[in-house]
Design brief:
By secondary structure, this protein is of the alpha/beta class. Strands 1, 2, 9, 10, 11, 12, 13, 20 and 21 form a nine-stranded mixed sheet that branches. Strand 10 and strand 11 form a beta hairpin. About 45% of the residues are buried. Bound molecules: flavin-adenine dinucleotide. Flavin-adenine dinucleotide (FAD) binds next to helix 1, strand 19 and helix 9. Flavin-adenine dinucleotide binds next to helix 1, strand 19 and helix 9.
Length: about 375
């Protein structure tokens, strides 16, 4: 006999917990199913912990809209719920004249996206603010911040549980089937069970496509291909020579080796970018010299031996190497035709910043889909 539930959210990363919280707070019965023994052990704990302002993303994209909305909501949320964070600000810098055009493009895109508080800076102003940084120009984004991602997830979980939602750890979704009664999920773990759900939200991150493919009845052509790209972080020993986050103008389609500072004052450089074939968080120490070279373009004072291997994170990609990076893909019944199902694919950066706005978006997709016929 299958157990029945109103909503199952697959995956307890920051996005799954934000969605579970949102649905529970509207009065729905929610369980978040997580395959690991703890929540948030994958991408949500292997990132830069930056609250992004919304600078880089194409006009009107979900990334641009949900980042700006999510950032505003997140600052309010952190203040109201005492989640540790700091509006530390960031400067984006051009290291030489060849990067000025790129810097100008970022500025214009950011203003279009609704970042209203940016300030252009000349080299002298930047020297006053960040004496260790060598550059010819830059701009300040005062609304960029840093956050304790684990504390945020704990707070989302607390809200969800207060509203009757539950987290089931060590409960991997193994398969599923779309039926006339709802979506049947086969859940593994110590007490395997079949769960008949009115609503399923697939927030399985790096595994979202694999999960969607195991649900019989989901159109296979609606599931994007799976790619991964690893990023390494090196940490800096000693006190921070920087007062804010420092981002060079990107030379590729990722943000370059930039500086982030965590809430404990630890400086991290990264992440870099390499396509990989499978999920493997192993740290490749052969990258060290490339990091020294990239960092010394804007921080010439970096001493030999000052970098220590930190950690890695893996970006859940839905596009092939060499093709332009697409938007978040958040698909509800209108896109794939299955009543009660939402799939989230390619939720890379700025997914942490956008988590509250993504949860609102999912809620709206489900609320507006009542007229879609079931499969
Ligand atoms: C290197 C890097 C740096 C980043 N920096 C930032 C940043 O500074 N700011 C920002 O806003 N964003 C950043 N991001 C993006 C952000 O970290 C992600 O968008 C966010 O963490 C995604 O959360 P998630 O819940 O979708 O995925 P995850 O955290 O990966 O959670 C998915 C969960 O699903 C579970 N799961 C998988 N399969 C199953 C299954 N079959 N059954 C049950 N559970 C399952 C997994 O165990 C996991 O816990 C960064 C990402 C990377 C890779």
């Amino acid at each position: 006999m299958a157990e029945t539930i109103d909503c199952a959210v697959i995956g307890a990363g920051v996005v799954g917990l934000a969605v579970g919280r949102r649905l529970a707070m509207t009065g729905r019965e929610v369980v978040v199913l997580e395959s690991e023994e703890h929540f948030g052990t994958h991408t949500s704990s292997r990132n830069s912990e930056v609250i992004h302002a919304g600078i880089y993303y194409p006009t009107g994209s979900l990334k641009a809209r949900l980042c700006v909305a999510g950032r505003n909501a997140l600052y309010r949320y952190c203040t109201e719920h005492a989640v540790n964070h700091r509006r530390i600000g960031k400067v984006i810098v051009a290291c030489d004249d060849s990067e000025l055009a790129g810097l100008g493009k970022y500025y214009e895109q950011a203003v279009t996206n609704g970042c209203a508080d940016l300030r252009m800076l000349n080299a002298a102003e930047l020297r006053g603010m960040e004496p260790e940084v060598r550059c010819v120009a830059g701009f300040l984004s005062p609304s960029t911040g840093i956050i304790d991602a684990h504390g945020l997830m704990l707070s989302y979980l607390g809200d969800m549980e207060e509203h009757g939602g539950a987290l089931a750890l060590a409960s991997a979704v193994l398969a599923g089937e779309v039926t006339a009664q709802g979506i049947m999920l086969e859940v593994g773990g110590a007490e395997p069970m079949a769960l008949l759900c009115r609503t399923v939200v697939n927030c399985a991150g790096l595994h979202a496509q694999a999960v969607a493919r195991t649900i019989a009845g989901v159109p296979q052509e609606s599931v994007p291909p799976t790619y991964y790209a690893i990023g390494h972080y090196y940490t800096l020993s000693g006190r921070s020579p920087f007062n804010r986050l420092i981002y060079p103008v990107a030379r590729q389609d990722w943000l370059g080796v930039h500086v982030t500072i965590d809430l404990g004052g630890q400086v991290k450089f990264g992440p870099d970018f390499t396509w990989i074939d499978r999920i493997d968080y192993a740290f490749d120490e052969s990258r060290e010299q490339a990091f020294y070279a990239a960092i010394r373009r804007y921080y010439p004072g970096l001493r030999d031996g000052a970098l220590q291997p930190g950690y890695t994170g893996i970006r859940p990609k839905i596009h092939a190497p060499g093709t332009p990076g697409p938007d978040f893909r958040i698909e509800g019944p209108r896109e794939h035709g299955i009543r009660g199902l939402v799939n989230l694919y390619g939720i890379e950066s700025p997914g942490l910043t956008s988590s509250l706005a993504i949860a609102d978006y999912v809620h709206e997709l489900l609320a507006n889909a009542s007229e879609v016929p079931s499969a």
